[in-house]
Amino acid sequence: MEVKAEKINPYRNDSRPKTEQVRDMFDSIAPAYDFMNRAMTFGVDRRWRSKAVAMIAAAGPRTILDIATGTADLAIKLARELNPDHVTGVDLSEAMIEIGRRKVAEAGLGQKIDLRQADCLDLPFDDNTFDCVTVAYGVRNFEHLDRGYREMLRVLKPGGTVCVIELSTPTSPIVKPFYKLYTSTLIPAVGRLVSKDVRAYSYLPESIAAVPQGERMLGLMTGAGFTGCRCRTLTFGTCSIYTAVKPTVS
Questions:
Q1: What is the pLDDT of residues 202-231, one digit of tens each?
Q2: Which of 242, 205, 196, 201 is nearest to 222 (CA)?
Q3: How far apart are CA 146 and CA 143, in angstroms?
Q4: Alpha-carbon gap, residue 80 to 107, rounded angstroms
Q5: What is the DSSP code (8-state) at residue 123?
Q6: What is the pTM of this model?
Q7: Which of 1, 47, 232, 247 has the smallest CB count inside 10 Å?
């Protein structure tokens, strides 16, 4: 399956692989990242994370891997609300990780959360390591989405759960025009004011529009080897939460 999002890069006329561009983009916008997240979603991103945590709570995961952890918002929430034995967060951007480490320390969770720089397409973990893998607003940045899902499957224990939160495009003919105006005009304008990286917040709506959504995303997860793949949409379709399970028998 061709994945259009894999061809959408942060920087135009840049021949480097997408993974390198994404790393540099997030290094650049790290100081403004948390503010822009709250501003862009009017704080609703917190509610989306709460929904996702509630959806995986029943499984009672003891070891969790949070991919594309960024500044560790989801990792901290998982540690607080699910009380697992350990949460490991990985991200391409060392600048994002450094902010995340400070937030983890301020939350008093340094013994429970470990953050490290790593490539989600080549995870530095053994097979069958984690009970749960989460990704919040990150899969649209993967250079190879299928490879990313296969890595998640590999490091999950049999019966383990994957939970992906991703921004999506509303399909309602009433909501869609307002959403398009907001994402293509207002977000880039605010991003240019707040962040020194003028391209990053134009890349955002482009990557959202290009990422597989709904059944297409579920198809990628199924193709990677997951079962029980489900999608739940939130807030007029502007966010989708995908869940799936690693089979207990290969």
A1: 888 888 889 999 999 999 999 999 999 999
A2: 242
A3: 9
A4: 9
A5: -
A6: 0.94
A7: 1
Beta strand 130-136 with 113-117 is unpaired
Binned average pLDDT, 10 residues per bin, the chain of 250 residues: 82 91 92 83 89 96 98 98 98 97 97 97 98 96 96 98 95 86 78 73 86 95 98 94 92
* Radius of gyration of the CA atoms of the chain, in A: 17
Distance CA 208, CA 202 (A): 11
Question: What is the pLDDT, as a whole number, of residue 52?
Answer: 97
Torsion-angle region of 64 (φ positive above 0: left; ψ -120 to 50: alpha; else: beta): beta
Q: What is the pLDDT of residue 176?
A: 84
d(C-alpha 161, C-alpha 240), whole Å: 16
Find out whether 114 and 144 touch, Cβ atoms under 8 Å: no
CA distances from residue 60 to 64, 66, 90, 210 in whole angstroms, order as listed: 10, 15, 21, 33
Residues 6+ apart with CB under 8 A from 35: 194
Q: Considering only CA atoms, which of 47, 97, 43, 48 is closest in space to residue 69?
A: 97
| pLDDT of the residue at 1 | 60
* pLDDT value for 250: 59
Q: Tell me, what's the pLDDT at 92?
A: 97
Helix (H, G, I), strand (E, B), or coil: what is residue 200?
A: helix
Distance of CA 104 to the CA centre of its chain: 18
Alpha helices per DSSP H over the chain = 18-41, 44-57, 73-82, 94-106, 145-155, 175-181, 187-194, 200-210, 215-224
